Amino acid sequence: MEQERTEIQDLGEFGLIDYLTRNIEIQNASTVLGVGDDAAVIDHFGKQTVISTDMLVEGIHFDLMYTPLKHLGYKAVVVNLSDIYAMNATPTQITVSIAFSNRFSLEALNEFYEGVYAACEKYGVDLIGGDTSNSQKGFIISVTAIGEVTPDQFVKRSTAEKGDLLCVTGDLGAAYLGLTLLEREKKIYLESPEVKPDLEDQTYIIGRQLKPEARKDIIEFLQQEDIKPTSMMDVSDGLSSEILHIAKQSNLGVVLYEDKIPIAQESKEIAMKFGLDPTACALSGGEDYELLFTMKQADYDKIVLNEQISVIGYMTDITEGAHILTKGGNKYKLVAQGWNAFQQ
Amino acid sequence: MEQERTEIQDLGEFGLIDYLTRNIEIQNASTVLGVGDDAAVIDHFGKQTVISTDMLVEGIHFDLMYTPLKHLGYKAVVVNLSDIYAMNATPTQITVSIAFSNRFSLEALNEFYEGVYAACEKYGVDLIGGDTSNSQKGFIISVTAIGEVTPDQFVKRSTAEKGDLLCVTGDLGAAYLGLTLLEREKKIYLESPEVKPDLEDQTYIIGRQLKPEARKDIIEFLQQEDIKPTSMMDVSDGLSSEILHIAKQSNLGVVLYEDKIPIAQESKEIAMKFGLDPTACALSGGEDYELLFTMKQADYDKIVLNEQISVIGYMTDITEGAHILTKGGNKYKLVAQGWNAFQQ
Asked: Name one GO molecular function term (chains A, B) (predicted).
């Protein structure tokens, strides 16, 4: 008898995670929140611990041809800290495990760890463990971040309410445009190694790709202003995908205004140059590591003067679906990769 | 100018870790113990959290030709739990991240997770997070285990004292012999695929390699008997390497009696068949996941009837060095890969 074989790509990443975690039964009273959000929450006698983990694989998540190892170490930490902040928690410790092929020298690993330590210092976290081993091919990084939060002050994705304002921090799309530029320059270099790349005017978008930051400042601002978001997550896969996560998990609909999506002037210019739609880059690009959150309308006055926070829409009843209102006045169905002009 | 290049193998694994962690400065008061032991310890307002992490890489740590994926999932969890028990702590949660090439089907991943969940159930821990991604080649697993311990009841490697008894649990060398047997059968199969492997008589040593267990029972026994080991670690790299860790980190010497090292009858028989010295397998084999600990002589009466605990030596002043007294009455210097007959 032939064995059944289902291809993993048929499920997609989230389908795969759903599938693999479908039978989990929580056994410890201290496990407050398990799989399914940016991070897990553990209650250790009054204080709550938050854990998040990510794996980065050479050739899949990064290309060492244009990624300095120091930036890679920094980014590997920051993307995990971003998950902790997205829980409304404060990161306190990390573990870093790496596997590397024999083409890496000690100097190369040292450069990587310089980036790790730079991120630890900037965000005030301790590296408390890890593992190093060989790989047959390439460089593999696994980071686990641990944080703490005042009991029950953590913020999930599933608790937005109808009428809540939808907000996002910073600007979007630049990391994707930075990647597009780096990939283009790589291609040119491989075809004509004598052509020198001219990236000087593009430090903003390249920096957003190679050395992202986590929004510690926003979590501090929200605490200072006594705002507890009703739901929150970080923008790692692209705005539309993340908005749909919050809507779906909160059992709500959503309206997004295209003209409210924050996009930097540098990003608009380079998008034009590449013939790309800046809005599409923001919706589908990913790796921005900004915070997407919902909050009560009553809190609007507290954030209106903060230029780092944009209100981009609001949550509706689930029967109204998830839509984007474009600059041109059209209403399209929001889908994970942007919008769908065929299903209004 | 040429860049400096130091080869990683010149340092060895522990030298590499020492090098990469040499500049760590602890920033959070809650970080009780960082890099350098089986796991880190975090103090979260009275209760202490213990974290440990390991990365397993196909072709380096395991061979899927003879490792069933379910056993691999089980083992990946157990080796991390073993580190938590080695801190005298109780594991409570794990995260599991995997990267896999496109040769893996959903059924294959499911089999792996069946093993993960079987270990979770057996040891009473919750899977609370993780990450899945593609790899360019092979299967990569990163597990982080979290545990808890009554404040300051965790046991380090560095706190053994002169005169303490050196103890080890279970028996040693079997996992290495299981690996040797599996590697031999693989070689025969690759040369003559028509020859059927006959492993039926060897279930003990193969089980010790493919499906090890962590010594939860011992930690419970020690607590029940009110014994706090003076130092402890798990045996993952081989007995002699681990004994030297405890001696070095505790700034002591040690005497090990060859005839006290526990080795199963099955292991002795297969070692003979392979022309291997059973003691050498125990000293250098590794992957036993037994507990190695030191305790006060006054606690001896409490453990003497426990057949799972063997007293194998005692700690001495550092000036006396680290030695093994062989069955033949000779005294040799203990080295990480067994003993050295040239340096007495």
From this structure: ATP binding
Query: Is the CB of A28 less than 8 angstroms away from the CB of B54?
Result: no
- CB pair distance less than 8 Å for A35 and B127: yes
Residue A114 CB neighbour total at 10 angstroms: 15
**Testing the interface with A: which of B42, B55, B110 to mutate, by most A Cβ within 10 A?**
B55
ipTM for the predicted complex comes to 0.84
Q: Are the beta carbons of A136 and B60 separated by less than 8 Å?
A: yes
Residue A231 belongs to some domain of the structure? yes
- Domain of residue B289, CATH code: 3.90.650.10
pLDDT at res. B124: 85
Q: Is A287 assigned to a binding site?
A: yes
Pairing mode, strands B126-134 and B90-100: parallel
Is A52 annotated in some ligand binding site? yes
pLDDT in tens, A262-296: 999 999 999 999 999 999 999 999 999 999 999 99
> A21 or A102: which carries more pLDDT confidence?
A102
Q: Mean pLDDT in runs of 10 for chain B (344 residues)?
A: 59 56 54 48 65 90 92 96 91 87 81 88 84 86 89 86 98 95 90 77 91 96 96 93 93 97 96 94 94 97 96 98 95 84 53
Tell me which of A131, A134, A139, A143 to substitute to probe the interface with B (most B C-beta atoms closer than 10 Å): A131
Q: How far does A244 lie from chain B, in Å, by closest CA?
A: 20
Quick: pLDDT tens for B261-283: 999 999 999 999 999 999 999 99
Which residue out of A144, A154, A237 would a mutagenesis test of the B interface target, given it has the greatest number of B Cβ atoms within 10 Å? Answer: A144
Tokens for B320, please give them: 């006396």
Q: What is the mean pLDDT of residues A105-128?
A: 85
- Whether pLDDT at A1 is above 50: no
Burial class (CB in 10 A: 0-12, 13-18, 19+), B224: exposed
Same domain (yes/no): B84, B182: no
Per the domain annotation, does B233 fall within a domain? yes
pLDDT, tens digit, 9 for 90 and up, residues B68-120: 999 999 999 999 999 999 989 888 888 888 898 878 877 788 888 889 889 98
Which range of residues forms the domain containing residue B113? 29-149
Whether B28 and A93 lie within 8 Å, measured CB to CB: yes
> A249 with A313, same domain?
yes
Using an 8 Å CB-CB cutoff, list chain A residues near B130. Answer: 35, 53
Claim to verify: residue A131 and residue A170 sit in the same structural domain: no
Residues 117 to 146 of B: which have CB under 8 A from any A CB? 117, 120-121, 124-138, 140, 142, 144, 146
